[in-house]
Amino acid sequence: MSRLAEFRKLEQALAAQLAELEELKGSSELQKEMEFETKLRELLAKYGFSLRDVINILDPEASRRTSVATPLKTTRKARDVKVYKNPNNGEIIETKGGNHKLLMQWRAEFGADVVESWVSVQG
User: Which of 100, 112, 113, 118 has the greatest number of C-beta atoms within 10 Å?
Assistant: First the structure.
């Protein structure tokens, strides 16, 4: 696509988004929500509370379930070590992944199903 065609396409998309934005600005629902947010923030400032304080007041269990400011980090389980023993020559490979060079050669030579039958998993 030429740069000019790309420019015109983006310009049309921008014009459509601007029209949608103007339509949304005139929405009475949006006006009500914006008014509510403004009044809520003023009320919080007046009494010295934060949004987190209000959440804790309304639902004390919410802070234990999840944190608003910092989402819980999840860690993946470490991969198990797989030990492959080639019955033809007795060679042994210990790996956590499937990209081991010799393992890939065995799969190409003997087939993935056959090589997978040579595996034993260690903790």
Answer: 118
> Both 55 and 106 in a single domain?
no
Range of the domain at 25: 3-65
The reply to whether 71 falls in a domain is no
* Total domain count, the chain: 2
Contacts of 79 (CB under 8 A, 6+ apart): 96, 97
Least confident of 4-18, 21-35, 69-83, 93-107: 69-83
- CA 50, CA 41: separation in Å to the nearest integer? 9
One domain, residues 60 and 85: no
* Of 98 and 83, more confident: 83
What are the φ/ψ torsions at residue 115 (nearest 5 degrees)? -65, -35
Q: Does 66 have pLDDT greater than 70?
A: no
